[in-house]
Hints:
By secondary structure, the protein is an alpha+beta fold. Helix content is about 50%, strand content about 20%.
Amino acid sequence: MSKASSSSSIGSGFYKLTPKERLAVVKDFAGLTDDEVQLIGQTGALPLEVANHMVENVIGVFPEPLGVGTNFLINGKEYLIPMATEEPSVIAAASYAAKIVREGGGFHTGSTAPVMIGQIQVVKLDNANKAKDDVLAIKDAILKKANDQDSALIHYGGGAKDLDARVINTSMGEMLIVELYVDCRDAMGANAVNTMVEACSPLIEQATGGHVCLRILSNLATKRLVRASCTIPKEALGGEEIVEGIAYASAFAVADPYRAATHNKGALNGIIAVVLATGNDHRAIEAGAHAYAAINGQYTSFSQWVKNVNGDLEGFIELPMAVGLIGGAVRTHPIAKICMKILGVKSSNEFGEVLAAVGLAQNLAALRALSSEGIQRGHMSLHARNVALAAGAPTELVEAIAERMAKARMINVNHAKEILADLTNNKP
């Protein structure tokens, strides 16, 4: 990556730089201050006193490797993607796929409004269908009560926008589920939504004569969707045979839940790495994504790849994405704040769309490897470094040991120890 081109995310040769040199490039791209550079370069960058206020029973902090995905061009804008992950090949694969996608003009994305769903469960009803009508009759009063809870959200154009209700049959009889639709703007929205549904519950009990049990946000955010698409020339992928192989692999994932689980996990490898780096709730993202993949009754892929009439590859992904720029650890964790600065997104919608593009890139990289040389070749070469470390190799010998294991295609701790002993004994 050229330091003279601070607005470009193209990462040619980026992996060859030292961590210090890479951080200097990121500093130039994102406009980081010297203090931010110093902080992000520290392995213990989360102060213990801050961690002690974030969660309970704190005894320390647990660092994860933090890297950046390069080459991302999304809606004509350059991005460097901060990614926190322990898994080898994730960042390299995303960067490689993003480079290929550039050949077709980059990623194109879109999203719906950042609306979350809050659920109110009403039980012990004499007539659930009548109770539904009674709730809908006072919809305006319920929405007003909800919006009275968060004047700041209303000020920024958010708030409770609509309400619906449905009757469900359960093992404990019929229940009425009242759903509040809340535009959360640039927040993930859990706290705002939960406060609203709790405040509205007495009104609903009074209207229905029933008893309210749960009052809680749903992580199946079907009204908060993100999408990304791309078209890749067959030449950039290595020919029409590889395009066809990826299309076959995609069709397999769409039709078979056993394949879809691993297919979707591949996309989430990239998405969750960015979510972790930015202090967002990765459990909510994963729960929502997997539930969305099964929403029609069978678990399936949330991405699809097809060969178009020109023989080129077209890809598409859609999934819920409840992420925020404010609230929680996003504004508390010092490294999460710097990662958000590197990412440079201006709204939760933009953030979600970037995540969709990352997921599509990660998915593409995995499918290309699977449909050509196989997933293990590149992954195990990178994994070899972890094996070398596990064998007790000093950092200055890790690359040499990893290279010899990869060349021999024998990547395990015992082999790493043998190579380590050989290198140590033959040291001049």
